[in-house]
Amino acid sequence: MTQSIAVLDFGSQYTQVIARRIRELNVYSKIYHYSTPVTKLREDGVCGIILSGGPNSVMAENAPHPDKALFDMGIPVLGICYGLQLMGYLLPGGEVGHSAQREYGHGVLHINKPSPLLQGIRDGIRVWNSHGDRMENAPDGFEAVASTENSGFAVIQNLEKQFYGIQFHPEVFHSEQGIDLIRNYLYGICGCTGEWTMAHYVDESVAKIRDQVGDKKVILGLSGGVDSSVAAALIHKAIGDQLYCVFVDNGLCRLNEAESVNKLFHDNFHMNLTIARAEDRFLNALNGVTDPEQKRKIIGHTFIKVFDEEVEKIGEVDFLAQGTLYPDVIESVSIDGNPASLIKSHHNVGGLPEDMKLKLLEPLRELFKDEVRALGTELGLPKSVVWRQPFPGPGLGVRVMGEITKERLDILRKADALLIEEMKACDLYYKVWQSFAVFLPVRTVGVMGDERTYDFVIALRIVESTDAMTADWARVPHEILGRISNRIINEVKGVNRVVLDISSKPPSTIEWE
Ligand code: XMP
């Protein structure tokens, strides 16, 4: 069994960051709902527990509390912020009080005593705080080993039981040496040995996939995006020709998309790959449709029909592979401490055909996005795939405003390809979140040579973001924007004007439809 650390989630916005930091240190970690019973943690063989931060006061009515028996498991426990206060509230002798003022921002850490948690940590480092309550008294058997101006209990420990508490947030990068503190906990206290590497993950999942699939067939909708590409490469490594990939060419793809998918996965990786040419079906179904949600529905339904037909042709298939990621399956904790947990919904390629009666194979379910990229690199996928920008399922269908026609799609495809080419040439493509062109069904007047033109407008949308929830327009240097605009107007017939979108999200969205 892989060594693992349980992160109990009390609703902090940083819970996923804690889990990711641990994995970056080559130790597997999993996020658990705060109420997870100790029997489950024992069953999973966790070798250490971290109690996350949280927005509540530990003393509030309905405040989320863990199964107290975790303090009797005989394994190390680290409480971070709310987690430290939980120790103060739940363990005998401890005391927590409301502080007059919420401590938010930087503090300076003074180390008062040696501690396994503070090995190699410098006195006077800046640490990041965000808490309302404060510990007034450490529980019996604990001692304070470090303090900040506002708290005598910035770091506490009970060496006999191997319980530790940190009032600040070591997981955020504003905390100096935060990663070293976490490393000390994992390696110095929990006895981890750093088993979690991508090479190890590949070996483990290959064995698991072989075991799960046996001699059956697996179908996978390959979109050419990061997740489905990495899933395909991993499953193919495990079961080779038992994997059947289908790329649906819906006519809403970027320039030469089907060709490059074919080249990489069929020619290079030698996978079973069908390119389902369905442009006409999609465009016929979309004929005259202008409403964005209607477009999405039609594209989704048509995808399922086309995909279904391809599955029929392959014959008996048992598994449907999907590139579901870990953040899609983590149960989220509601802020008011209500134990009824919410399962996040997630969209998958075109929507899951429910009546297909296929078993699901989701080999990326345990991975964060950055780990999926590391895995893709480990499996030999090129940078252009592993670091590809996100692309919406309905493709250019939601980037041609209003009615979709082949002529408009062709114009957009060319403009978009030029934009991508220039963004790559100036080394900005991989630095921004998304950069794409949008077709506006508006004709404006221009002059080319001696002639008057009356052509369409292309908008450039280039944004920076870390999770697509919020975004800002990227400040791309004017010379680069000028070059992109010139090339589009000169090289794409039908366009005589290029405009730049300078809206942030919110209140705008990244896509235009
Ligand atoms: P918005 O436009 O909502 O986009 O700010 C946020 C992120 O989601 C992508 N997006 C979609 N992805 N199907 C998808 O699979 C869709 O219908 C869809 N709409 C938007 C968008 O590209 C951005 O990354």
Task: Describe this entry's structure for a reader.
- The radius of gyration is 27 Å and the shape is globular.
- 32% of the residues lie in helices and 25% in strands.
- It is α/β, with parallel strands linked by helices.
- The protein contains 14 helices and 21 strands.
- Mean pLDDT is 94; it is low at 337-350.
- The protein has an eight-stranded mixed beta sheet with strand order 2-1-3-4-10-9-8-6. The chain has a five-stranded parallel beta sheet with strand order 13-12-11-14-17, with helices on both faces. Strands 18, 19, 20 and 21 form a four-stranded mixed beta sheet that branches.
- Helix 8 packs antiparallel against helix 9 and helix 13 (406-425) packs antiparallel against helix 14 (478-491).
DSSP strand count: 21
Proportion of residues in helical segments: 25-40%
Q: Hetero groups bound?
A: xanthosine-5'-monophosphate
Give the spatial strand order of the biggest sheet: 2-1-3-4-10-9-8-6
Please give the count of helices: 14
Output mean pLDDT. Answer: 94
- Point out poorly predicted stretches: 337-350
Tell me the fraction of residues in β-strands, as a range: 25-35%
State Rg: 27 Å
Structural class: alpha/beta
Shape: globular
Distance N to C terminus: 46 Å
Largest sheet, described in full?
Answer: 8 strands, mixed
Provide a quick synopsis of the model.
By secondary structure, this protein is an alpha/beta fold. The chain is built from 14 helices and 21 strands.
